[in-house]
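Dear support,

I submitted the protein below through the web form. The confirmation email said the job was done, but the results page showed an empty box. After a refresh the structure appeared. I'm attaching both so you can tell me whether what I see now is the final result or a partial one.
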Amino acid sequence: MFRFIVYRLNFLKGIPLFALIYDSCLKIAMLLVAPERLAWFDEIENEVLSWDGTHVSLHKFGGMQFNYGQKEIGHLHSNGLLDILFTRQVKQKLLASGKAEVHHVFKKSGWISFYIATEQDLINAKYLLNEAYRSRV
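What the results page shows now:
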């Protein structure tokens, strides 16, 4: 469903508040289907907020955005899709090692995507976010 919305109904992102409402619907679905993941997302938020100079905001396309100063580290959609910005060189290493996937939209950029579906994914997500944070500090 998420891929369908992103690829086929991309024009909807121009509708004010649509992305935030859609992401809220994803969060409700996650609450019904896999409530433990919402606790994992809170754990990720708390981890990132424990790092100096970080804060959280709403992402323009829905979800939680992690920032260091005025720069985005990454963002987490309520379906468990974590997008993080790295340099292209770091991205290539992460892809080669299988620690990340090509970003679902910006394939040629430094963005990676990572789905959080298991407790091991939670650990890996925190690792990836920390790597992105340390590269900006």
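Response: this is the final, complete result; the empty box was a page-load delay. The chain has a mean pLDDT of 88.
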